[in-house]
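In the current project phase, the collection of sequences with tokenised folds has grown. One resulting record follows, to show the layout:
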Amino acid sequence: MKPPARIVAFSIDGPPVGKGRGRAMIRDGKTSVRTPAKTRVYEKRVSEIAAWTAKGRRFEGPVSVRIKAYRKRPAAPGPKHESRAGDQAGDGHRFCTSTPDADNISKIILDSINRSGIWTDDTQVSDLQISKRWAHAGELPRVDVEIRTLTPEPTP
């Protein structure tokens, strides 16, 4: 019988943040790339939450990552927001087509998990699912992350 998959799940409170682009600078003839402060702060926060949730355990082998980003709906959505919100998703939330882009959300989350040390590298991610939704009225914006092993973990 196959052992159950190991799962680590956590949430990051607050609006989803996309990975900011680094800015190249030349100083004294040397080129360096500066990561935006908002990206650095968010990555540190996500990294700490992931490490705390994993409790020192590491993922070995291929993993599946599911990311669900929930944005706060505008207080008075106008035609622009309503038309972009699209239809109701299967989970009862409306689709969100505003920034940040889904690929930038996944990039900042995966890079943050790299920093947490709970896996060797995000090349271990074999399955990736990302969704963006508008939060319901009264529901807080957040990003939910679930990491799951795809193969049995070696027993110590």
Summary: The radius of gyration is 18 Å.
